[in-house]
């Protein structure tokens, strides 16, 4: 009803879950309504035998995990700020964490969705069973759409049994290049890590570790398997320059997601770069050199197996907008040169006014605009926030 009335009046509507991705995207072009979904927080249906769950979009990730653990299952997603992040928001932002290395992103776990379109029409896609192959895979259309195509109100997701044991360990190296070599060695070995993270010296210090390039690896499964994999990791990385293995506390998992941002007091900007996994260490070295040339500081972390990097830029003195813009443009150029892309995840509005949040969409932008026109013909859902002015 709210969306239908707003559409009739031409008033924009912004769906709001936990607000954890509020700074992402292009600033809104005009004021509108903020539609809070926090009261839609029920667990509607849990089928332990089918390993599926259906929840309302306003339920937080932490609340859902607590309910599932009581039955020996879990949702294999670990987005930032799980205490605030809602299921609908995580899907809309395409958010994930270190465990994406093994378990994937919301696209891999979403099997059914209920959304409200820009005309106030309720649309259901997918189903409630894993082996649902009928029709178009409509749910995936809304993953990472930032609320521009529809307001997610319910979701059905795939679950997994809780592992018997889980361990997060760190291997310190002297050179960043050696960490990259070690990461590639792990991915080509018999090891099956649930997480494979690369952090530079600054991000490592933010994690409470020695300020050195570090490979952080997670394992889960049977206790015997986890113990063997940790031993094998040490055997594999020692000849490559690894200085032994350090076990990390469970509380380090969420810190991995914020390590780069937390390296210094306040970042001047945060950018996500997506590159080929084999080039992660090289891109970090190039990006760090570009920062030093302009008298700035940076901190880096990466999902090494997926090629997704978080780069946080800092200024040791009064920020120079020109230098910040130059570095961000260099970083974007490095990502694009390798066939990847970059997204300006966070920056002051003065910087966003000078640096595009999104890469140019190319021909794909026209397809995306046509989809937007079908689902939100009046352009009231988060207008202008996403790629190509969607």
Please summarize what this structure is.
This protein has 13 helices and 17 strands.
How are the SSEs ordered, and which strands pair?
Elements: H1 2-9, E1 13-16, E2 33-36, E3 43-47, E4 52-56, H2 61-69, E5 73-74, H3 87-93, H4 100-103, H5 106-109, E6 110-116, E7 122-126, E8 151-158, E9 160-161, E10 165-172, H6 176-187, E11 195-199, H7 201-206, E12 214-221, H8 223-237, E13 245-248, H9 252-258, E14 269-274, H10 280-292, E15 297-303, E16 308-314, H11 321-337, E17 341-346, H12 349-352, H13 363-375
Helix pairs in contact: 6-10, 10-11
Q: What shape does the CA trace take?
A: globular
Measure the end-to-end span. Answer: 23 Å
* Level-2 CATH architecture of the largest domain: 2-Layer Sandwich
Beta-strand segment tally: 17
Overall mean pLDDT stands at 93
The CATH topology of the largest domain comes to Uridine Diphospho-n-acetylenolpyruvylglucosamine Reductase, domain 3
The low-pLDDT segments are none
Computed over alpha carbons, the radius of gyration is 21 Å
Strand content: 15-25%
Can you count the helices? 13
Biggest sheet architecture? 8 strands, antiparallel
Output the CATH class name of the largest domain. Answer: Alpha Beta
**Total domains:** 3
User: Largest sheet, order of strands side by side?
Assistant: 13-10-12-11-15-16-14-17
Q: How would you classify the helix and strand content by structural class?
A: alpha+beta
Helical fraction = 25-40%
Could you describe the 3D structure shown?
The protein is an alpha+beta fold. The chain has 3 domains: 2-161, Uridine Diphospho-n-acetylenolpyruvylglucosamine Reductase, domain 3 (2-Layer Sandwich); 165-256, Alpha-Beta Plaits; 260-352, Alpha-Beta Plaits, CATH 3.30.70.2740. Helix content is 31%, strand content 24%. It contains 13 helices and 17 strands. The chain has helices at 2-9, 61-69, 87-93, 100-103, 106-109, 176-187, 201-206, 223-237, 252-258, 280-292, 321-337, 349-352, 363-375, and strands at 13-16, 33-36, 43-47, 52-56, 73-74, 110-116, 122-126, 151-158, 160-161, 165-172, 195-199, 214-221, 245-248, 269-274, 297-303, 308-314, 341-346. An 8-stranded antiparallel sheet has the order 13-10-12-11-15-16-14-17, sandwiched between helices. Strands 3-4-8-6-7 form a 5-stranded antiparallel sheet. Strands 1-2 form a two-stranded parallel ribbon. Helix 6 (176-187) runs antiparallel to helix 10 and helix 10 packs antiparallel against helix 11. The longest helix has 17 residues, at 321-337. The model has no long low-confidence stretch (mean pLDDT 93).
């Amino acid at each position: 009803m709210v969306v239908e009335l707003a559409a009739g009046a031409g008033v924009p509507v912004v769906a709001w879950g936990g607000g954890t991705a509020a700074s992402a995207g292009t600033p809104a072009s005009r004021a509108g309504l903020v539609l809070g979904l926090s009261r839609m927080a029920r667990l509607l249906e849990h089928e332990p035998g089918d390993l599926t769950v259906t929840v309302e979009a306003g339920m937080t990730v932490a609340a859902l995990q607590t309910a599932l653990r009581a039955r020996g299952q879990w949702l294999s997603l670990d987005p930032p700020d799980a205490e605030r992040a809602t299921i609908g928001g995580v899907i809309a932002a395409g958010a994930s964490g270190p465990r994406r290395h093994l378990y994937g992103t919301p696209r891999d776990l979403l099997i059914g969705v209920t959304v409200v379109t820009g005309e106030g029409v309720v649309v259901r896609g997918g189903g409630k069973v894993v082996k649902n192959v009928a029709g178009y895979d409509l749910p995936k259309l809304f993953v990472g759409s930032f609320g521009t195509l529809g307001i997610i109100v319910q979701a059905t997701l795939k679950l997994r049994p809780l592992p018997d044991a889980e361990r997060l360990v760190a291997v310190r190296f002297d050179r960043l290049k050696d960490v990259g070599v070690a990461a590639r060695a792990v991915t080509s070995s018999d090891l099956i890590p649930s997480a494979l993270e690369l952090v530079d010296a600054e991000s490592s210090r933010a994690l409470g570790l020695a300020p050195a390039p570090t490979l952080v690896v997670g394992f889960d499964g049977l206790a015997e398997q986890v113990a063997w994999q940790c031993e094998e990791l040490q055997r594999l990385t020692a000849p490559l320059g690894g200085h032994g293995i350090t076990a990390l506390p469970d509380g380090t998992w969420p810190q991995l997601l914020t390590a780069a941002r937390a390296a210094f007091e306040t970042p001047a900007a945060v950018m996500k770069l997506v590159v080929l996994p084999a080039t992660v260490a090289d891109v970090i070295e190039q990006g760090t050199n570009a920062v030093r040339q302009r008298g700035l500081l940076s901190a880096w972390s990466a999902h090494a197996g997926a090629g997704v990097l978080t780069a946080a830029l800092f200024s040791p003195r009064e920020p120079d907008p020109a230098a910040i813009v130059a570095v961000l443009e260099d970083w974007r150029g490095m990502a694009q040169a390798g066939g990847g892309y970059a997204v300006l995840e966070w920056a002051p509005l003065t910087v966003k006014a000078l640096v595009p949040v999104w890469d140019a969409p190319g021909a794909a932008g026209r397809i995306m605009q046509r989809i937007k026109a079908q689902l939100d013909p009046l352009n009231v859902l988060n207008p202008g926030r996403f790629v190509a002015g969607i």
